[in-house]
Amino acid sequence: xxxxxxxxxxxxxxxxxxxxxxxxxxxxxxxxxxxxxxxxxxxxxxxxxxxxxxxxxxxxxxxxxxxxxxxxxxxxxxxxxxxxxxxxxxxxxxxxxxxxxxxxxxxxxxxxxxxxxxxxxxxxxxxxxxxxxxxxxxxxxxxxxxxxxxxxxxxxxxxxxxxxxxxxxxxxxxxxxxxxxxxxxxxxxxxxxxxxxxxxxxxxxxxxxxxxxxxxxxxx
Length: 220
Prior knowledge:
Blueprint: H1 14-27, H2 39-46, H3 50-63, E1 66-69, E2 73-76, H4 81-105, H5 108-127, H6 130-148, H7 151-170, H8 177-192, H9 196-219
Antiparallel strand pairs: 1-2
InterPro entries: GntR_C, TF_FadR/GntR_C, Tscrpt_reg_HTH_GntR, WH-like_DNA-bd_sf, WH_DNA-bd_sf
Domain HTH gntR-type: 12-79
Keywords: DNA-binding, Transcription, Transcription regulation
């Protein structure tokens, strides 16, 4: 595994920096499902100390990214496609709430940013640039979450989004970036227009796509 130090804003706590770094390694499969968590290796990779690292690992355990197994210690949780279907069922409910709330509450500046992120996803999909696509996806989530002004809903959905991203990296060969970008753009347009019904429908359509994609993986 490549050793790289983490570059992050100075105002972030060390434990938060560690969390972001390790989460990224898990989501992008640098730390593969079933891989052991070796503290000494993660300290070398992140350049952070044992205390913030352990705090980050405890948070990941509560979010279901890592698990403790007898005689094996901490390992990266396996990806279970069947379980992913129920995750999307739960995410659907929260995403519709977030989308309609964002459509109602977003400022003009946030509406512009939401549309811009959606457009960036479309361009990245057209160019076949997965990293750019995922970066625009994360940016869209961030600005929509800011716009909805519902921290409880955001806190509930973030662990689900993280698992969905890891699923995408694991099974990207079964995915369709163009369709995913189209669904995200419909969601972005509904929010930008201030149309709560269209925004909620956009979120529903996106979850429909993610569910069909997941079932394709299961049946494939």
